[in-house]
Every structure is written in C-alpha cells, then in structure tokens.
Automatic annotation (TrEMBL):
Keyword Oxidoreductase belongs to the record: yes
Protein name: Succinate-semialdehyde dehydrogenase
Stated family: Belongs to the aldehyde dehydrogenase family.
Enzyme Commission number, as recorded: 1.2.1.16
Molecular function terms from GO: succinate-semialdehyde dehydrogenase (NAD+) activity
GO terms (BP aspect): gamma-aminobutyric acid catabolic process
Residue span(s) of domain Aldehyde dehydrogenase: 20-478
NCBIfam families according to UniProt: SSADH (TIGR01780)
Annotated active site: E255
PROSITE patterns recorded: ALDEHYDE_DEHYDR_CYS (PS00070), ALDEHYDE_DEHYDR_GLU (PS00687)
C-alpha cells in the first residue's frame, strides 16, 4: 500500500476536515519488538482538536441527511477496501503493536466485520408509532443520530476498537473525531485514509494524534458540540473522562478494564478447557481486556489441568510478530514488562509455585516468557490487578459457591469463562456471574454479532449487534395533536 510505505519514511499527518495536517511537532512510533522508530506522527493539541470537532460538526447536517442506502453503500465500500488491504494493514499493525502477523490479520478481518454489519444494520434503524392517549393525537418515536462522537481508543486492538465505534456511529448518521492511542496511531490513520478513499465525505471522520492525550481529551469531553464520548481503555482514565463529561452532560460509552475469571469445574472436559485457556489467556500476549486474568480450578481436576496447561504454555513460540511461527509477540513497552514481573515476583514471594516462565525471554527486552503459576491465593496482586501479560495464575477451590464468590470478588465485570458439563451447574454458574459477557465451554467470545461490554467498573454501554447502533442514537418523542 503505497501511502503506508510513504508514511514509514515521512512525518505522518493527522486528518482534520478531509485535510491531512502536519503538526509543528511530531512524536515517534516505535516497534515494540525492536525498539526502532518506524515513523513520526503529527503531535496535535487543543486547537487542532477544536478544528476537528468543528469539521465533524459542520459535516454532520449533510451526513445525517444522506439517505441511509447511500451511507450504507459508502460504509460497505470502506469495508471492502479494508479487506483488500488486509495484508498491508496487518503488517503495519504488527510493526506498531507487536502482535503476530496472523493475529493482526485476524484483527483486520474482525475490525472490518463491524463496518459490514453496521452498514446493513443502519437500514433497520427504525422508529415507532405508539398507541395514543387521545383520539385526536398520534404518538411517534423518531430515532435520530446523537451528533458528533469522540472515539478514544487503546493500543491493544489498533483497528477493531476504532471500527467498533466508528462504524455504528457513521451508520447512525453521526460524525466522528478519533483519538487513537499514542503507541498505535498508524493503523488508525490508515483506516481513515481508506474511509476517504471509499468516499466518506470530508469531516465525517477525523483523526487527532497526540503524544499528550490530556489536552485533546479536555476538548473532546468539554466542547458542547461533542455529544457522545465513546472510550475504550483503562478504568482510571475512563473515570477521569466520565467526570470531565459531566459538565456538558454527554452521553458516554466506557469500555474499561477487566479481571476475567476462568473457572474449571471437576466435570469439565479438561482438554477443551486447556484449549480455551490458551486462546483466552495468551492471545495478543495476554494484552486483551477480555483475557483471562485468573484461573479458578476445582480440587479434583487441579493437578491435571495445571500439568496440561504447563505443557502447552511451554510450547508457545515467542518472537517478533513478523517472524514465521511466532505466537507470542512483545509486550507494548517497558512499563508492561515491569508490571508482569512485579506480579510474578509478588506471587512467588507469597508462596506460588512457578511451573514455567517467570522471566524475560531471550527474544528481546520487551518479550516475556509465557508463565504458569500454581497454588496462587487471593492475597497475591494477580488476584486483584489486571496483569495484561502472558501469565496464567491458577487458584484452587473446593465448593462451587467458593468459585462464584472468588469470581465476583472484584470491582470489574467484563468477561468471565467457565468449563463444566452438568447442565444444572452450567445454568447456576451462568446466572451467578456478575459479568457483562460469559463464555461457557468457550474461550473466545468476541463477534460483531453480539453485544460487547461490561458491568460494574468495567464500564457502560455495549458495542456490536443492534445494541451497538442504539448507542449512537437518540429517541425523539413527537406528539401530533389536533387531528
Ligand atoms: P489507557 O486508559 O491508558 O489509554 C486509552 C486511551 O486513552 C489512549 O488513547 C490514551 O491516549 C487515552 N488517554 C489517556 N489519558 C487521557 C486523557 N486524560 N484524556 C483523553 N485521553 C486519554 O489504556 P491503554 O493502556 O491504552 O489500554 C489498556 C486498557 O484498556 C486495559 O485496562 C484494557 O483492559 C482496556 N481495554 C478495554 C477494552 C474493553 O472493550 N472493555 C478493550 C481493550 C482494552
């Protein structure tokens, strides 16, 4: 893809109102596998952000008036272009984020699927007529776009977190200002470039890149023209943005952190559970919000599960995401490595048994050896904090009620998983888990067809499915009288 090759040599501009804007300043985007700078990107500030909001606001009236079949066709073209450029986008993603190329390609396909889905779903954005309270009146409910949407996204899914917000927003007739994570702005810019290529009008999609997100965030959360802030990232930043949004009473969607439990009951198919564990825990080197953070395993199956899991984890190939066969790439930066090592040291210091890993990998400074810890207890940091790395801590429980209590004993409530075969246990557990998403005998649950989101401090709102479109619409009740 020529524009990407060009970018990797020049300073990469941001996108404001259909214009590619270079900043006075730039910041470096580094490859986490090698620490080499792969590009420099425009470092935008509050004024640029206000310009982007103005561009989105000004483009809004024409976009919402564009017939839905035309909006849908433009989104469909965007979807096709992303798929046509899937290999280049995947390579770019691996370069800036580190995930293995096959996973990056998977994310491109997954990210594009939201555009395809919402291009169709927009056609079903229907209002209602309601029974009336008077013979001379008719009651209508119109479904209208919210207005300008700010999309603030994390580095761990550089494309999918953007399409999951922008596709339903644009489909509903909203316009967007994207603020991608400072570690991974290139994939976001490439996606926006393809949106313009697809024919989305200038100003409908804007991208503000910044090394210091607070100034940009301040504008996006306080400018009255922005009507919705859709954020994916950590819980502390989400709380901060939520508070900032209060002054102009914005609608918000908050996709925040998790502390996912993965319960294995005595009656589980242990091989299936180990397959699910590998998929859930080690995807993206453990840097996924729905990643298992805690394995809770019943006494009778504990030793078998730990032995089988350790064997599989030992065989995971670590290396540069561009190298053939790598399944575990680097962590995003040094702070991520430090946190993982702190969790492992803390657990070992409090009596956990190291089954494998527990140290940096020889592949480089940002690579961590996939790790299994046994005899983990609730006094250890891994019980409460999101590790966000390739570490599988295995807790032990005896009674089912104990597992449920441990699983729910966290302020988070994003995803939970469990493996069991008894149908009564399956129903009881499914209902008792205080989570927004539950995988039953399944370790990978994300799809554009289902509502993704959390409860408690894991957030507000849902992305994906028809619920994801509703998030970008307002209801307008109209009472027509005097008939
Ligand atoms: P982060 O909260 O540090 O950053 C997320 C985004 O917010 C980035 O774009 C960052 O630049 C921006 N940001 C930070 N401070 C800001 C401010 N003051 N104003 C405006 N923007 C600001 O999170 P991260 O480290 O990029 O991502 C990892 C976290 O994201 C983990 O906690 C993970 O669980 C969570 N996450 C959640 C989901 C979900 O769907 N629930 C999905 C992926 C990641």
């Amino acid at each position: 893809m020529s524009f990407i090759e060009q970018w990797l040599h020049d300073a990469v501009p941001a996108l404001v109102g259909g214009e590619w804007r270079t900043g006075q300043q730039t910041f470096a985007v580094d490859n986490p596998a090698t620490d080499e700078t792969i590009a420099r990107v425009a470092d935008m500030g509050a004024d640029d952000t206000r310009d982007a909001v103005a561009a989105a606001y000004n483009a809004g009236a024409a976009w919402r008036a564009t017939p839905v079949k035309q909006r849908s066709a433009l989104l469909r073209r965007w979807f096709e272009l992303i798929n046509e450029h899937a290999d280049d986008l995947a390579r770019l993603m691996t370069l800036e984020q580190g995930k293995p190329l096959a996973e990056a390609k998977g994310e491109v396909i997954y990210g594009a699927s939201f555009i395809e889905f919402f291009a169709e779903e927009a056609k079903r954005m229907a209002g209602e007529t309601l029974p009336s309270h008077g013979a001379d009146k008719r009651l209508l409910v119109l479904r209208e776009p919210v207005g300008v949407v700010a999309a603030i996204t994390p580095w761990n899914f550089p494309l999918a977190m953007i399409t999951r917000k922008c596709a339903p927003a644009l489909a509903a007739g909203c316009t967007v200002v994207i603020k991608p994570a400072e570690a991974t702005p290139l994939t976001a810019l490439a996606a926006a470039y393809l949106a313009l290529e697809a024919g989305l009008p200038a100003g409908t999609i804007n991208v503000i890149t910044a090394s210091k997100p607070a100034a940009v965030g301040e504008v996006l959360t306080t400018d009255p023209r922005v009507r919705k802030v859709s954020f994916t990232g950590s819980t502390p930043v989400g709380k901060h943005l939520l508070a900032q949004c209060a002054s102009t009473v914005k609608k918000t969607a908050m996709e925040l952190g998790g502390n996912a439990p993965f319960i294995v009951f005595d009656d589980a198919d242990v091989d299936a559970a180990v397959d699910g564990a590998i998929a859930s825990k080690f995807r993206n080197a453990g840097q996924t919000c729905v990643c298992t953070n805690r394995f809770l395993v019943q006494d009778g199956i504990y030793d078998t599960f730990v032995a089988k899991l350790t064997e599989r984890v030992n065989a995971l190939k670590v290396g540069d995401g561009l190298a053939e066969g790598s399944v575990i790439g680097p962590l995003i930066n040094q702070a991520a490595i430090d946190k993982v090592q702190r969790h492992v040291d803390d657990a070992q210091g409090k009596g956990a048994r190291l089954m494998c890993g527990g140290k940096l990998h020889t592949a480089g400074e940002h690579f961590y050896t996939p790790t299994v810890l046994a005899d983990v207890t609730t006094e250890m940091a891994v019980a409460d904090e999101e590790t966000f790395g390739p570490v599988a801590p295995v807790f032990r429980f005896k009674q089912d009620s104990e597992a449920i209590q441990m699983a729910n004993d966290t302020p988070f409530g994003l995803a939970a998983y469990f493996y069991a075969t008894d149908y009564r246990r399956i129903w009881r557990t499914m209902e008792a888990l205080e989570y927004g998403m539950v995988g039953v005998n399944e370790g990978l649950i994300s799809t554009e067809l289902a509502p993704f989101g959390g409860v408690k401090e894991s957030g507000l709102g849902r992305e994906g499915s028809h619920h994801g479109l509703d998030e970008f619409t307002e209801l307008k009740y109209v009472c027509v009288g005097g008939l």
